[in-house]
């Protein structure tokens, strides 16, 4: 059976749920460095009758000793095998616990990591983000997905120190937090590919256009691979569309956020036991959008920001998606943002589509400053003739099926509570 460590367990609620709801576990260690928490956990574990599976432990989760040293009094209940699953659910940032976790998890084991410091990760304090995650966050429309890519970058680069690397299974942005599920493997050769999996982001402060710059390059070489420096930059000194400057963010994980086969299995499991979870509808909606996301296209634009940049009214999602499909590109939603446009169309195509839209929905140009991004973008003739004729395939299946894809307005008692008082 699997061995699970909940390194920051507080009341032990989650560990108790693991014990009661996940069949075939060998042991669950519910750890917290607070004596009061451990006392509560002991009570909760006894109360729930899971004492045979859940062992409360008291150690500092920042140090790998917790995970490995046999001489530690707690929390090793059985044997000395490593943990197959390590769950990190901190107040705020998991950064201090990542090093220990990437070292300690078993080969191919699973890390489940929550971050609730979304201000930091979504661009409000880029410098703090760098100190915690080794990446500069940006305040772009794509900030929620970028937050996911920042924690994945951090996990991979810390794993790399120990010749390990991550493989994401599922990366979720929900409400006020993000949570990623990644497997960790060991392999000196595979770690060499990690630089090429990360990218810097150039983000135009005027029109919001973004470009990625990978940190490394992989080339196939005989039966193996050769690694080298990436070439760049992907942008000039100013934005080609609006002539303003770029902000530089990242590095962030630029590979897929999810393993589609895994997500399909989770969806199938959900469908095979209806009524099992209160949040079933929301999970089904969110995971369905996840399966539709273009895995090979990091980040996204939003319809509102594309329209507000050029001061025009907003095309409907179906119109805009149809235009992209007519032009021969792929497009998807993102679970991380309600009106996201994730597409492999280059920014020049997006702006051409917006220019065509503005031709049929004219913008009052006289009110625009000549140097504004709107004027600069609209002063160029589109080279593409966009068609907004609706296409059936422009409507994503999750939307057609009427799934509950995005959270409703908050209910009473919604959101994180204040950190518990010491005592
Ligand atoms: C957000 S709570 C965990 C909630 C829990 N996962 C749940 O689902 O109910 C974070 C916990 O981490 C504990 N903690 C903070 N720093 C720690 C450290 N260095 N080592 C161990 N536990 C720590 C705190 O005492 C607190 O109980
Ligand atoms: Zn620009």
TrEMBL record:
Q: Which UniProt keywords apply?
A: Methyltransferase, RNA-binding, S-adenosyl-L-methionine, Transferase, tRNA processing, tRNA-binding
Entry-linked PROSITE patterns: SAM_MT_TRM1
Question: Does the record's keyword annotation contain Transferase?
Answer: yes
- Its Enzyme Commission number? 2.1.1.216
Q: Name one GO cellular component term.
A: nucleus
Residue numbers spanned by region Disordered: 390-423
Indicate yes or no for the key word Transmembrane helix.
Answer: no
GO MF entry, a single one: tRNA binding
InterPro entries, per the entry = SAM-dependent_MTases_sf, Trm1, tRNA_met_Trm1_C
GO biological process terms, alphabetically, are: tRNA N2-guanine methylation
Reactions the enzyme catalyzes: guanosine(26) in tRNA + 2 S-adenosyl-L-methionine = N(2)-dimethylguanosine(26) in tRNA + 2 S-adenosyl-L-homocysteine + 2 H(+)
Q: Which family does it belong to?
A: Belongs to the class I-like SAM-binding methyltransferase superfamily. Trm1 family.
Q: What's the name of the protein?
A: tRNA (guanine(26)-N(2))-dimethyltransferase
Species, as recorded: Circaetus pectoralis
Name of the coding gene: Trmt1
């Amino acid at each position: 059976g699997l061995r699970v460590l909940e390194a920051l367990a507080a009341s032990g609620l989650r560990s108790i749920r693991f014990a009661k709801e996940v069949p075939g576990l060998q042991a669950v260690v519910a750890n917290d460095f607070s004596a009061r928490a451990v006392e509560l956990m002991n009570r909760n574990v006894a109360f729930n009758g899971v004492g045979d599976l859940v062992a409360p432990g008291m150690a500092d989760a920042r140090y790998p000793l917790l995970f490995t040293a046999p001489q530690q009094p707690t929390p090793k209940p059985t044997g000395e095998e490593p943990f197959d699953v390590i769950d990190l659910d901190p107040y705020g940032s998991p950064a201090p616990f990542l090093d220990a976790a990437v070292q300690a998890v078993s080969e191919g084991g699973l890390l489940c990591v929550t971050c609730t410091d979304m201000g930091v990760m979504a661009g409000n304090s880029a410098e703090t983000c760098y100190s915690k995650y080794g990446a500069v966050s940006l305040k772009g429309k794509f900030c929620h997905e970028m937050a996911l890519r920042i924690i994945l970058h951090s996990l991979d680069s810390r794993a790399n120190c120990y010749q390990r690397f991550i493989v994401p299974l599922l990366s979720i942005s929900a409400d006020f937090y993000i949570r990623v599920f990644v497997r960790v493997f060991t392999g000196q050769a595979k770690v060499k590919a990690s630089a090429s999996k990360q990218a810097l982001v150039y983000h135009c402060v005027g029109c919001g256009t973004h470009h990625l710059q990978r940190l490394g390059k992989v080339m196939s070489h005989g039966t193996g691979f050769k690694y080298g420096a990436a070439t760049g930059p992907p942008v000039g000194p100013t934005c080609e569309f609006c002539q303003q400057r770029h902000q530089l963010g990242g590095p962030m994980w630029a590979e897929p956020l999810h393993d589609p086969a895994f997500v399909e299995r989770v969806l199938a499991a959900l469908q095979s036991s209806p009524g099992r979870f209160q949040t079933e509808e929301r999970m089904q909606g969110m995971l369905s959008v996840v399966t539709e996301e273009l895995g090979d296209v990091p980040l996204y634009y939003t319809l509102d920001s594309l329209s507000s940049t050029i001061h025009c009214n907003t095309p409907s999602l179906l119109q805009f998606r149809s235009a992209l499909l007519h032009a021969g590109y792929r497009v998807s939603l993102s679970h991380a943002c309600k009106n996201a446009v994730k597409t492999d169309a280059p920014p020049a195509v997006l702006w051409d589509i917006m220019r065509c839209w503005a031709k049929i929905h004219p913008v009052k140009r006289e009110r625009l400053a000549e140097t504004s991004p709107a004027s600069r973008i609209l002063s160029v003739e589109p080279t593409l003739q966009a068609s907004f004729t609706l296409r059936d395939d422009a409507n994503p299946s999750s939307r057609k099926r009427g799934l509950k894809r995005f959270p409703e307005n908050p209910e009473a008692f919604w959101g994180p509570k204040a950190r518990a008082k010491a005592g």
